[in-house]
Design a protein that fits this description.
Length: 779
Amino acid sequence: MALRPVVITGLGVICAIGRDPVEFWARLTSGESGITPISDGAYAAFDARFAGQVPTEWITDQLPEGDADLDRTAQLALVAARQAVHGAGLEPEAVDGDRFGIVLGKCQATPDAEGRYQPMHRTGDVVAGRLGARGPRILVSTACAAGGNAVGLARDKILTGEADVVLAGGVDPLLFGTYAGFAGLQALSTGPCRPYSTSDGLNLGEGAAFLVVEPLDRVLARGGTPLAEVAGYGLSADAYHATAPDPTGRGGVSAMRRAFADAGITADDVSYVSGHGTGTPANDSMEIKVMRTVFGERAGQVPTSSIKSFLGHTLGAAGAVEAVASVLALRNRTAPPTIGFDEAPEAENGAEVENGVAGADAARQTEPGPPALDFVPNTARSLPIDTVVSNNYAFGGNNVALVLTTPRGEREYEELPTVPVVISGLGPVSGLGFGVADLAEAIATGRQAAGRVPSLAGRTFAPRSLWRHMNDLSRLAIAASRLAWEDAALKLPRAAMEDIGVIFATAAGSVESTGGFDESVAANPNKPSVLSFSNVVLNATGGAVCQTLGLRGPTTTICNGGASASIALDCAVETIRSGKADVVLVVAADETAEPEPAEPGTTPYARDHAGTIPGSGAVAFVVESAAHCRERGGRAYAEILATRHAAGGVADGDGELIRRSLDGLSVADVGLIVGAGSGGSADAEEATVLFDAVPGGLLTSPVGQTGDCQAASGAMNLAVAAMAVRDGVAPALVGLAAPRVGGTDRYVTKPETAGEVTAALALTAAPGSVRGTVLLGKP
């Protein structure tokens, strides 16, 4: 199936070797590293003190005065984003803001200008707000694979027709705590790193990069210039370890082969590989196995280089920075080198060096054995390049391979097929209990447990060897996943498990691990809690789910606050529509550090309730193609008829975002609305808009019974809406006597009030950022 060609038209980058793409490429081809000793005295605590740092004046010189008060992460991102938009020749008035999206990759929770943690999606909100982008907005946090992952998701948004232009990129600053964590893992080199040869550790770096992604036909129509084509991408899960890559390279191989299939190419078509090449023994040796497995006897003939010895490992930005380098490699038909490559005599002849890394280029191999690889040592090389694969691997076991080619010209194409997709299994875990039966009982009786932390005492949902090392959030997510899997009655052969997708949704990840790690660094930066550090990355919980259930299909992590679950569901549907998986497990989890409240619950939409009770929970659901569910004899709860998201800023108002998220939806048959009301004053605006737009729907919200569990609450809304469609029950608003808006007859006041539900709406909310709406119907 030939899909609509999607191309890159603009580039932006700022990192240790350049403040823009021109300077960046000049340094890459000259072989001049930007890794230097860290001047900040705080880092004197560590033995390793080299990093790729961005001079502050490179940032401030490119920002208008109005951006001076922004935090460093937002400033880095804005510099690169504006470069990309300018480079694409996009005039603001020529782009409909509602069809201008952004997909941003980040690894770390970053501080605001006052030094406090800010929501993960905040940086994307700032960039989108400054550039007038009100279309699809996604924060992807797959650690060091996030930047490449973002480019792939941007292509998806073009193929689904949701956007005409998408800014895809990544950003991460150099943070002391993260540096301490890598030092604690003994993963840092004491000098400039040397990927693929000495491989004695990595250097951290900082920066940002963006690429403008558009459909080719639109670019040509507006007189733009396609720089490269995003031919395809592949995702996979190692399902092996929290921080170490699978030493067999299985996950990396799967990602590359899925990318080839998506792009419609074979390994023989690849002319250059932009490697992950961190410089650690575990990564570099694994990556060599991937290359040899994928390319076989041709492995030594495919030039592969890592640019991390130029600028350090920029974590969430790395994949985007390397995608920019790959586009420039295609444009200039030149492979940037792996600098710092040790061409010592013992590494020649293709021999394996002590750490398992092959040393010299293929041309020097004289002994029989596996083909030595060509790492483009130390000097840039001109060569014919038509197809580049850019690979990234991450903590949590996330892998991504991105295929970029020279623009292949206009051609006939097919739209992404419409595939009926259903929800066939639910796994709710909250203070109300475990599984569908407990939730159904709580709905029937009106039992409240808002803010109560689900108790897993005496229960294990994973092998004890894994369970005892897990934090609470991973345990909640795994419990929810197991319950959803059992509820769906999925019995698949082992081979099929390799292709099951997992999409994790969270607003903030593990509060427990983040707090524990920060405390350990504050106490002694040379003795950080490495166990907590391995779970600080937001995709760690999704990785734990994959590892426990043995799932290795396409996987990613979405961090858009309370809207994360519906965006994750969107990604799951797109994965199925594009033929990359038949079954995807969507898991949402968040937790609170607040103590359990004295009151058992609150009443959303009630006039006399003015507070939200935070909670902890996890909800998983099995999403599969209707055909797959039918063929295996599964029983679906509901069909996913449509998903909509509207993005904006605080100035837009949440009411306006809700209205936009309902645009184009067929709501005539909607009998139930599961809203995002949480007991606060904002409930009134939501109710007003919903009653106007969906006159036949009764409104309710389960948050009064569970507490506000952020991403998990969005998923809970989807779960109870699905149960209502199949089983005709819905949570009542306990104690609702005087609503803020309308009469009580507009709300669900008894579980049976909704009656038979033909179609239901489920809402999700990241206030001031994204509002989501999902329409479910009878399967």
